[in-house]
Amino acid sequence: MRIFLTGGAGKAGRHVARYLIEQGHRITNADLKPLEMEGVHNIRIDLTDGGQVASALQMRAGYDELDGDDYPGYDAVVHLAAIPAILITPDQECYRINTLSTYNVMEAALSLGIRKIVFASSETTYGVCFAQGEVTPDYVPVDEDHPTVPHDSYAMSKVCNEVTGRSFQARTGADIYGLRINNVIEPDEYAKNFPAFMEDPSLRRRNIFAYIDARDLGHMIDCCLRTDGLGYEVFNVSNDDMSVNIPASEVIERFYKGVEVRKEMGETETFYSNEKAKRMLGFQPKHSWRDVLEG
């Protein structure tokens, strides 16, 4: 497939781009920064400018396409670009950039007849990650039916983007899939960061003790690209196991006392359910911090 990828130079984006290229897709990276990777064509773009987005989506994906008579267009858009957290820009800018860029990308893509959009939502929509003080989920494991009540500008922007995606899908009938991505971990971060999580599991409380390997995120997005006809859906994205080395029963006792537990938890099972993605998309994460630290 020909993929218009936004935010490909970011932490998650560069791993997603590499994975998609390995699966045979052609990638255009639309970002403020280039992604220096073989097989990627870069377009420097301000996604908050709707005219730039519409123009970029109509451009060729490389000089080789100048020789053909027809412009093939893009098969899908993968929208990852965003201010990635709070406390990076003023809150107003975080909300403005994230919501306006998402609206522009969806509007332009659908106007040009692109029928598949995959966009990054977030674990923060559940109101735990960036809340002031300690907030626990209403129940565990957290699935896509859990209320989304954000406490911060970043999470607010992601909930707004989900509404935008749902509205565009209702209007057009296209496939628009929102990914509530948990904390993205790059392969080198296991040895660097996870020993501290073993010493102090409370460091993972705000992430619901979950994570997603950046390579498995690429696999998840590829699953979305290959699955048609779902309309509008949101999916949690996480690895199968927790990001701490204490059993689930101890996590419940120490951190989720009084929280409804809706199923019997496996000893290492994630509290951020990925069952829906497995069932509807064939998602099968392959990586784990345990392969590095326990191996």
From TrEMBL:
Coiled-coil zones: none
Superkingdom: Bacteria
Residue ranges annotated for the NAD-dependent epimerase/dehydratase domain, each copy included: 3-199
InterPro entries: Epimerase_deHydtase (IPR001509), NAD(P)-bd_dom_sf (IPR036291)
PANTHER family, A to Z: NUCLEOSIDE-DIPHOSPHATE-SUGAR EPIMERASE, PUTATIVE-RELATED
Descriptive protein name: Nucleoside-diphosphate-sugar epimerase
Natural source organism: Wenxinia saemankumensis
